[in-house]
Write a structure and sequence with these properties.
Low-confidence stretches: none
Number of strands: 15
Helix content: 25-40%
Number of domains: 3
Distance between the termini: 29 Å
Structural class: alpha/beta
CATH architecture of the largest domain: 3-Layer(bba) Sandwich
Shape: globular
CATH topology of the largest domain: FAD/NAD(P)-binding domain
CATH class of the largest domain: Alpha Beta
Strand content: 15-25%
Number of helices: 18
Mean pLDDT: 94
Strand order of the largest sheet: 3-2-1-4-15
Radius of gyration: 23 Å
Length: 485
């Protein structure tokens, strides 16, 4: 169909929708609630917690969208999804068309609908908030459209430009790398993604548990990229297996570095080298990617009865909820600020509490105590209070003199952030690196000091969300395409 005719038809439909229901009626519709598994059951199961919307619930939620002339919600989407367009397709019961709209700008709609912090991005700018109403559940609807397409077996592949024969390399198959690869494939390039691990997906596979993001969902999104012509090579470490010079010799004209931030941070306190104190990276990777929670695992992970997770972000929530599922009788979050300052999604905190997780806020570990075998058995906690705001805008935690307590802990997972993977910055001669180890880039194009090398995601940001990494991938792809063209 001619594009102008299609747009004219859409405008006619939009007019009909506006006339069918007044904005006042749309605002009056209560926001949909996401169906969830029972907390008692799910706390011992790896089944996905959120069950997804039915077509009827999704259609009703779609009616809440006011189809604003200047949709502010789109300003909060790092990948630029045409939010009103895909939602109005759902309202018209054209769900496959909604999925196609999502794929125009997002390589991972089923992933984003599950793990992106919509409440801080697109939904935080919804016009409903100005009317003292809850925002449209954009994330739930995105998940619904992507899931519907997959479950009905009607998966579409985005339209691609003719192949131009130019080879592009991507280091890392996390959200930044996948997003970049998808856009470059659409532009007509021959894209090869090199992944250091044996599984494709990066942090989507090793960092996020199945009860929040099932691997089968990630695999479907990756399969679409493969159908678009993207090639994946696993167990290949750019910077070690292949050097910068090797990539040039193989004919790659552009390189996108998306190697992430896999270097865990620790607190450097006494006892941190005891057995049973490990990083969230190691803990989640061994369980999610290597099956270390299984009894027959060659390198099983110690489950622990009294498990303490240090930190207040999403990774901390993933770790402590995983510990609960592995049999912990007492699974605790230890966080030095108050709950209001926690960077974790509100939904994750809610789910954790429902599953019996204990929150020790305004506490900070200062020492781990081991037994005669060198295994952690207790930790000493310093009680804190909030002082003046620091550079992040959050109130600074301050020690309460003399206020310490010792509690039992036979497994400690440290989830206080990560630093960028240092391998590529140290082996790509000419890359400019910050004092934090992040790759320095032009903020407008994400181009590095090496003209053919671009970078994005955690290797540049030092730790961020899936959707911000995907936004970097899109930005870098557009800039590299412009340069090569």
């Amino acid at each position: 169909m001619d594009i102008s005719i299609k747009e004219e038809r859409n405008e006619a439909w939009r007019k009909a929708l506006r006339e069918s229901m007044k904005n006042k009626e749309r605002v009056a519709i209560p926001r949909v609630k996401m169906p969830e598994l029972d907390a008692a059951y799910r706390s011992r199961s790896y089944d996905e917690v959120n069950s997804g919307l039915s077509p009827e619930r999704a259609a009703m939620e779609a009616k809440r969208c006011l189809d604003c002339p200047d949709p502010s919600c789109m300003n909060g989407c790092p990948v630029g999804v045409n939010i009103p367009k895909f939602i109005k397709h759902i309202e018209r019961n054209e769900i496959l068309e909604a999925a196609k709209v999502l794929k125009e700008t997002s390589a991972l709609p089923a992933v984003c609908g599950r793990v992106c912090p919509q409440e801080k991005q697109c939904e935080s700018l919804c016009t409903h908030l100005k009317m003292k109403s809850k925002p449209v559940a954009i994330g739930y609807l995105e998940r619904f459209a992507a899931d519907y397409e997959r479950e009905t077996g009607s998966i579409s592949v985005p339209q691609l430009a003719a192949n131009n024969g130019i080879k592009i390399a991507v280091a890392g198959s996390g959200p930044a790398g996948l997003s970049f690869a998808g856009d470059m494939a659409k532009y007509g390039y021959s894209v090869t993604v090199f992944e250091a691990l044996h599984e494709i997906g990066g942090v989507l596979k090793y960092g996020i548990p199945e009860f929040r993001l099932p691997n089968r969902i990630v695999d479907v999104e990756i399969n679409i990229l493969q159908k678009m012509g993207v090639q994946f090579i696993t167990s290949c470490i750019v910077g070690k297996t292949l050097s910068y010079e090797d990539l040039h010799e193989q004919g790659f004209k552009g390189i996108f570095v998306a190697s992430g931030a896999g270097l865990p941070n620790f607190m450097n306190i006494p006892g941190e080298n005891l057995s049973g104190v490990l990083s969230s990276n190691e803990y989640l990777t061994r369980i999610n990617l290597m099956g270390a929670s299984r009894e027959e695992a060659e390198t099983p992970v110690f489950s622990g009865k009294n498990v303490a997770v240090i930190g207040g972000g999403n990774t901390a929530m993933d770790s402590v909820r995983t510990a609960r599922r592995l049999g912990a009788e007492k699974a605790m979050i230890v966080y030095r600020r108050s709950e209001e300052e926690m960077p974790a999604r509100l939904e994750e905190v809610k789910h954790a509490k429902e599953e019996g997780i204990i929150f020790l806020t305004l506490h900070n570990p200062v020492e781990y105590i081991g037994d005669e075998r060198g295994r952690v058995k207790q930790m000493v906690l310093q009680k804190m209070q909030l002082g003046e705001p620091d550079a992040s805008g959050r109130r600074r935690p301050v020690e309460i003199p003399g206020a310490v307590e010792t509690i039992d802990a036979d497994l400690v997972v440290v989830a206080i952030g990560v630093s960028p993977n240092p391998l590529i910055p140290s082996t790509f001669s000419g890359l400019n690196v910050s004092k934090w180890g992040t790759v320095m880039v032009n903020q407008d194009s994400l181009q590095t000091d090496l003209p053919d090398v671009y970078a994005g995601g955690d290797i540049v940001r030092g730790g961020a969300t899936v959707i911000l990494a995907m936004g970097d991938g899109r930005k870098a792809a557009a800039a590299m395409h412009g340069q090569l063209r």
